[in-house]
Amino acid sequence: MIFSLMGGEMSKTEPRPIYVDSDKRTGLDDLAAQVKDGSVVAVGGGLSSREPMALLRAILRRGVKGLTVVGSAHGIDIDLLSGGGAISRSSESYVGFEQDFGMAPNYRRALESGAVSVDDSCCYTLVQQLRAAIQGLPFLPIRSVRGTSFPSLHPEYKRMICPFTGEELLLVPAIEPEVALIHAQYGDAQGNLLIQGPPVADILFAKASREVLATVEEIVSTARLKELGGVSIPYFYVTAVSEVPMGAHPTACYPFYAYDRRHTVLYYEAARKGADAFLAEYLSVFVHGAPDHADYLAQIGGEKARARLSSWRDGAEAWKRLYMDEAMA
Question: Is 217 within the bounds of a domain?
Answer without folding.
Answer: yes
